[in-house]
Write a structure and sequence with these properties.
By secondary structure, this protein is mostly helical. Helix content is about 60%, strand content about 0%. The longest helix is centred in the middle third of the chain and has 22 residues, at about 100-120.
Length: about 180
């Protein structure tokens, strides 16, 4: 495995949209926090979070290709379990259900970032620092709020033994220290 700097450069060579880069960095932070909770390899999990959408602009977010192309691009960059988690974060491309803790963590972890970002944007100061767990879990129930955020994928946190409240707290705690880097 390479360094974070190397992987961030690789990401930026393939993604130009600043919001996608922020999403990737947010996913990296959430995955690092989840790895810490489970005693997993923090670097490996965080790099998977950082790179999971590396092909989104190349594939034009085509749900039948996205993540499969990325997995091919990263085949010589990361270990097999990280490549598998990256591939499985888009279950539409594989046609297979997620089964491992790493797969569930990446899918739920990268998805919760969108709901947290959207929640922050309705706060008067638009800061992640101000976002409360209760606000995010309340927004989970509002299907029209951040309608493209898949609530079922977020709830896959329960498949790895984390309640939604704890999951949101882990994600918020991971994002607060890097909020300015994310634009929040």
């Amino acid at each position: 495995m390479n360094t974070r700097s190397y992987y961030l450069d690789l990401l930026k060579k393939n993604i130009s949209n600043p919001k996608m880069i922020a999403h990737s960095i947010a996913s990296e932070a959430v995955l690092r926090a989840l790895a810490r909770k489970f005693g997993e390899d923090e670097d490996l999990w965080s790099y998977a979070g950082l790179l999971h959408d590396i092909d989104v602009e190349i594939t034009n977010a085509d749900s039948k290709k996205h993540a499969l192309v990325g997995a091919e691009m990263l085949a010589n960059e990361l270990p097999a379990d990280a490549i598998d988690a990256i591939k499985m974060h888009n279950e539409h491309a594989t046609g297979l259900p997620r089964t491992t803790r790493f797969q569930f963590a990446l899918a739920a972890g990268e998805t919760i970032t969108g709901l947290i970002f959207a929640t922050a944007l309705v706060y008067p100061d638009k800061k992640i620092e101000s976002v409360k767990v209760k606000s995010v879990t309340k927004r989970m129930k509002e299907k029209l709020f951040a309608a493209t955020v898949n609530r079922e994928t977020i709830l896959e946190c329960e498949k790895i033994g984390i309640s939604i409240d704890e999951f949101v707290e882990i994600a918020l705690s991971a994002l607060r220290p890097i909020a300015s880097e994310l634009g929040f």
